[in-house]
Amino acid sequence: MDNTKNILLGHGSGGKLSHDLIDGIFTKHFKNPILDQQSDSAIIPINSKNLAYTTDSFVVDPIFFPGGNIGNLAIAGTVNDLAVSGAKPLYLSVGFIIEEGFPICDLEKIVVSMAMDAQEAGVKIVTGDTKIVDRGKCDKIFINTSGIGELEDKYLNVGSGSGVAPGDKIIINGSIGDHGMAVMAARNELNIQTHIESDCACLNNMISKATSSSNGIKFMRDATRGGLGTVLSELVKDSDYGISIDEDKLTVSESVRGLCELLGFDPLYVANEGKVVMVVSEDDANKVLESIKESPFGKEASIIGEISKDHQRMAWLNTSVGGRRVIEMLSGQQLPRIC
Amino acid sequence: MDNTKNILLGHGSGGKLSHDLIDGIFTKHFKNPILDQQSDSAIIPINSKNLAYTTDSFVVDPIFFPGGNIGNLAIAGTVNDLAVSGAKPLYLSVGFIIEEGFPICDLEKIVVSMAMDAQEAGVKIVTGDTKIVDRGKCDKIFINTSGIGELEDKYLNVGSGSGVAPGDKIIINGSIGDHGMAVMAARNELNIQTHIESDCACLNNMISKATSSSNGIKFMRDATRGGLGTVLSELVKDSDYGISIDEDKLTVSESVRGLCELLGFDPLYVANEGKVVMVVSEDDANKVLESIKESPFGKEASIIGEISKDHQRMAWLNTSVGGRRVIEMLSGQQLPRIC
Question: What was the ipTM of the complex prediction?
Fold first, then answer.
């Protein structure tokens, strides 16, 4: 990585520039076998058991948006990172960075949202920290959460997808692009009226039921920054298989599709905060799908495609009009400060 | 807490306003028995063992200062919070929030410092996250770390001080006020020339030797935000004993004393980043002191006072000139963005 340059917004997009920064600076110097796995949660051995451990910072703008606020994101983001690693989320830490002058009533609203989500997800917020910076030195409030979960041995590799094979089916638990477009629409400068709500939700209870219903989910990842497209292109990157997705099977709400067209975004790459991508064996696919559909967060779940022998290391979208296009890794910035 | 008001810088000082915010908003809504302990690290039961778990965000201004940088702080702060809880620090998470335009070479310097400190402390950075915010929306770089450590059962109460009793001795591992004054002197607007260096250091190896040399350290806390004065006033707050400290036994360097006088600060309340306060039984005091003095970070360690039957719930300073004054809890802001 060229360290004479400066940080760009795209370095936080979850796409190619993010990967360059992570590989060129962070994993280069922090190098160790656990970090090198680079999955949603680190797998750490303690007392001869494995725990999942993860962290995320939240800088979303605006901090309140239809369907949630920065506090909901901070709980769901970390709970989901643990859950998609096959872990039962147990404990969270919370670090607040708050701008001088921030209304305490807004802080309390955010904290109440966090407390309610944590309770529903069955996790405890056990430790925290607060820093205040002078006016103008941060944008209202930033929140970091980290989380610890208990990991079942059979899910040690679910984050890497190492068990994925041709013929496996790809499931997502509903529509894509809602979170990103809800936040974009809520930005004052755009002055857009829509009915889009963020899909922000803690998915651990849904995921736990899906894993119980299955013989073994082979891969799980939440489709946050970088969207579904990034999850799929990362999954095939170093693999010996391809991915084939049917555009017809993807759910994109009319409002999300419309706003994406207006603003020039591709829903495939727009952030979600309540969507998990699963890969399961063909035999398992319907059982898992039915289990997911029982959850309030999975009613629109569908099998969107499959793992194929062909086109190794590439993810393809079969478009509604009968064409095909490669789902590339997002290069550069798409939506800054979406979470 | 009056939630019609706004956040003040003092809410992050580590003093009384911080306590009001924590009690009035955070513990009120996040309420659970683990969080309610309010010690440096949460004690979490997992797989029938106890772990220590903690988090801190770092927003120091400037990010580079004599004796260290924000990266050194981010490692030492969390490692020390685990160590003073009686835990062996094992794993850290790191979350970066970076301003667009931040020089990648500065980021690399910070990351290299973190990697070196983590290695020396014997901890692994196993998971991380990076967010980039647009120019002007944060001040260069903020870092959050969280950490997990293994806890020996005999140190379950070392953070609360519940075993402390009259006659016990109070030890600190060296001079006070260095970190806070090094950062203040480094602020450009002050244009001050001093030789003060931050004491920022990972103390876990020193603490581990001290605990091995002792029959049981009764209380440990690192004297960071709010300084030594805050640690002492918090320790006696809900107790049935008092504290008596001899000003003569406190080490304050000439440069720190001078700058404190110039700027109107009391070294007792100035932040340290490499100082731990320990309470040990009289029988143990000399053994522990000798063990600490063997560490490069404890050469100037001394017994600074003792726990007394008198003046319950108050900490007293016996001044060099023969007077006495109460060491109160810091009210309001002292030094914003010191860590």
Answer: 0.95
